[in-house]
Design brief:
The protein is of the alpha+beta class. It is built from 3 helices and 5 strands. The protein has 2 domains: 3-80, Ribosomal protein S16 (S16 Ribosomal Protein, Chain: A); 89-128. The chain is 39% helix and 24% strand.
Length: 128
């Protein structure tokens, strides 16, 4: 069974608190896990020392056994220097989607139509 190093959510509504756990990939997010190896408190400032705490020896052990970290946990491990997260590049992410492009086109057509109507009305007044 493949192992994952992932986050398990705790805390109350609107006050998240996560435990970093090693669990089987098929186990529920907040359910059964093998070992608790750290925690993450996203409400603390990014430079606070207690925001992310990891048991580095246990993390190294589980990585050597073959456990795969999720993307968020891999970010934490990369900050601590325990694993390398490859840089990603998605140039299309910031581009607007089809619907947004259609709305922009409609807006341009309306403005062009309104501007054209205003211009022809002004031209008619000027000739009169």
């Amino acid at each position: 069974m493949p192992l994952k190093i992932r986050l398990s959510r705790g805390g109350s509504k609107k006050r998240p608190y996560y435990r970093v756990v090693v669990a089987e990939a098929t186990a529920p997010r907040d359910g059964r896990f093998i070992e608790h190896i750290g925690h993450w408190n996203p409400l603390l400032p990014k430079d606070h020392e207690d925001r992310v705490k990891l048991d580095e020896d246990r993390v190294k052990h589980w990585l050597s056994v073959g456990a795969q970290p999720t993307d968020r946990v891999l970010r934490f491990l990369d900050e601590k220097g325990l694993a390398k997260r490859p840089a990603r590049n998605n140039p299309n992410k910031a581009k607007p989607g089809k619907k947004a492009l259609e709305r922009v086109e409609e807006k341009k057509q309306k403005e062009a139509g309104a501007a054209g109507g205003d211009a022809s009305a002004e031209g008619a007044e000027a000739t009169a």
